Amino acid sequence: MIIGSKMLEINKGFLALNLIFIFILSFFLMIDVSALCYDECSFIGQKRCASSTQKQICGENYDDDPCFEWSEPISCLIDNSCGYENCSNTQRPSWYCSGGECLYSCIDDETCNPQPQPPQPQPPSQPELPPDDGSSTDYCNNEQHCPDNICNCDEDETTCPQDCREIDVSVSIFAKKESDLSQWQESLSLKSGEKAEILIIVLNNKSEDIDNVYLKLELPKEIGYKGIIKIADNQIEQDISQEINIGYVSSNSEKRITLDIEASKDIKSKTDKEILSDIRIEDFKSSDALKLTLEPSESKQSFFVWLVKTWYLWVLLWLGFIGVMYWLIKKSYE
Fold first, then answer.
1. pLDDT beyond 70 at 298
2. DSSP secondary structure, 201-262, as one string
3. Residue 228 in contact with residue 65, Cβ under 8 Å?
4. How far apart are CA 193 and CA 173, in angstroms?
5. 179-198: pLDDT as tens digits
6. Phi, psi angle pair for 286, to nearest 5°
7. Which residues of the chain form CATH 2.60.40.740?
């Protein structure tokens, strides 16, 4: 009778342990381990002004959790060129943020006014001569040789800048991984889901400023970016896969453009790609390429996630442990 009551107490103890274990297991199963965060904003694409000239956009891909958060401040100083969109040729846009949108008003700017040219004496009427190679004396005596798209007749950048202007601008592209503190590299290896930073340097080797420099970046389909770039530390939202005007580059100086990229998580095999950067100034073009190696990454998960995903193994282990303990205790009372 005493043994029976003790066995009853043991059974009750094991039942209580099982109930506690089931409760703890249920708690783990109800946890969404990827959702241990909170939303900073209400929906994707929501916008707000971070300052008078900066905005922020709500999204869920700015970090590794699935919650909504605000982006880094994005500059509204998109383009400061004379004659921008609705502005006249003597005006520049003055940018500001209102209601989360980048807006502008047109303001007069003296630097946009073309400098008046002194009147040129009109040559006597002469029959037009073909430019051929521009070497004939008669043709060079005819002032119509400037401009003729040929730097000839002893012309130079001063006497005929339309024909003899030289553009000495180059573009270079580099990259480094987000977690890498080393120097910028001309080639990069990325695993699926890995992030990196791209640096584009536009170098003006001439002794004069160059305005209206257009930049375009060709990214492989396996590479994505958030549509946010930095031009000389001014963060703006632009689609760099289309030509964008990065403004002017001062004489004998450089302009730096950076953006963050991320390799697709669906990369199945190792492959070699290129990121192409192109600049254009009027009819002048220059380009550079970054060599890119993409490969699938090894599957990694935290111990906590692994613990939750393998709950059935822990159930089997627990039932086996309970069964062995119950058999040993029962055996000791026989």
1. no
2. EEEE-SSS-B---EEEEE--TTEEEEEEEEETTEEEE--TTS-EE---B-TTEEEEEEEEEE
3. no
4. 21
5. 666 678 888 888 888 888 99
6. -145, 150
7. 169-295
| Residue-level pLDDT at 31 | 54
Angle, in degrees to the nearest 10, between helices 2-30 and 311-332: 170
Question: What is the rounded CA–CA span in Å between residue 333 and residue 129?
Answer: 123
Percentage, residues of the chain above pLDDT 90: 7
Location of structure tokens 């987000």? 178
Flag the least confident range among 61-70, 108-117, 119-128: 119-128
Q: How far apart are the first and last CA of the chain?
A: 13
Please say if the pLDDT value at position 141 is more than 50: yes
Average pLDDT over residues 77-89: 83
The per-residue pLDDT for 162 is 62
Name residues whose C-beta falls within 8 Å of residue 176's C-beta, 6 or more positions apart in sequence.
182, 183, 184, 185, 188, 196, 197, 199
- The domain 169-295 having CATH identifier 2.60.40.740: the answer here is yes
Which amino acid belongs to residue 331? K
- DSSP secondary-structure letter at 149? S
Name residue 280's beta-bridge partners.
214, 285
pLDDT tens string 227-243: 788 888 788 887 888 88
* Contacts with 73 (C-beta within 8 Å, 6 or more apart), sequence order: 50, 51, 54, 55, 56, 235
Q: Measuring CA to CA, which residue among 94, 58, 100 is closest to residue 78?
A: 94
Q: Rounded CA gap, 58 and 100, in Å?
A: 11
For residues 105, 109, 114, 118, the Cα torsion angle rounded to the nearest 10 degrees is 150
Annotate 264-331 with DSSP letters as a single string: -TT--S-EEEEEEEEEEETTEEEEEEEEEEEEPPPP---HHHHHHHTHHHHHHHHHHHHHHHHHHHHH
pLDDT band at 120 (very low <50, low <70, confident <90, very high): low
